[in-house]
Write a structure and sequence with these properties.
The complex is a heterodimer of chains A (about 110) and B (about 110). Chain A has no helices and eleven strands. Chain A is mainly beta. Chain A is globular and about 40 Å long. Chain B is built from no helices and eleven strands. The radius of gyration of chain B is 13 Å and the shape is globular. Classes of the chains: A mainly beta (about 110), B mainly beta (about 110).
Chain lengths: ~110, ~110
């Protein structure tokens, strides 16, 4: 079955810096890759997603890149702000909407 | 829309007791997912339904866990008997399969088994 690895597990940056979180997946059939943000004590919420026919997608300060050949995808946050502090999860969908999540990255943005 | 609704939000029970978690998906969504989140194991898919039919229950940890979806607007996850290692946050999520695949999560139920 699908296996998703996520790195780093924790990431500390200064406000205004960029943050990059990387994930790899094992199943070449995976074709949908969402990223969720989970604030402390809250539910995971989708922040951006990418499908396998696209290499990059941007939404304001957030971007995701996908390399299908290497089976990895990354989340890029530019000009980080304290409110970006949260746990970020990547996931892969092999079809039938079954998501396999990475282990999460705790991002801390210091003012 | 009120979003995905889960109840109770918190549950504290003693080992051996039956626990029932409830979920109301977003109206019109045809897929429903139950997840369990712990520090040790992260976010795990337990079971998911499509059009009220269980599609994949391979994540259900053992026979003590069962899930039902009697209609499009209601699902339950039952643990009987409960054990301390079942303590976790249980999330329900729903999606509409034809319009992309975003899964909308409910607020979760924090279960503590003593």
């Amino acid at each position: 079955g699908e296996n998703v690895e996520q790195h780093p597990s924790t990431l500390s940056v200064q406000e205004g810096d960029s943050a990059v979180i990387k994930c790899t997946y094992s199943d070449s059939a995976s074709n949908y890759f969402p990223w969720y943000k989970q604030e402390l004590g809250k539910r995971p919420q989708l922040i951006i997603d990418i499908r396998s026919n696209v290499g990059e997608k941007k939404d304001q300060r957030i971007a995701v890149t996908l390399n299908k050949t290497a089976k990895h995808f990354s989340l890029h946050i530019t000009e980080t702000q304290p409110e970006d502090s949260a746990v970020y999860f990547c996931a892969a969908d092999t079809g039938f909407q079954k998501l396999v999540f990475g282990t999460g990255t705790r991002l801390l943005v210091s003012p | 829309d009120a979003g995905v609704i889960q109840s109770p939000r918190h549950e504290v029970t003693e080992m051996g007791q039956e626990v029932t978690l409830r979920c109301k998906p977003i109206s019109g969504h045809n897929s429903l997912f139950w997840y369990r989140q712990t520090m040790m194991r992260g976010l795990e898919l337990l079971i998911y339904f499509n059009n009220n039919v269980p599609i994949d229950d391979s994540g259900m940890p053992e026979d003590r866990f069962s899930a039902k979806m009697p209609n499009a607007s209601f699902s339950t996850l039952k643990i009987q008997p409960s054990e301390p290692r079942d303590s976790a946050v249980y999330f329900c999520a729903s999606s509409f399969q034809r319009e992309g695949r975003e899964q909308y999560f409910g607020p979760g139920t924090r279960l503590t088994v003593t």
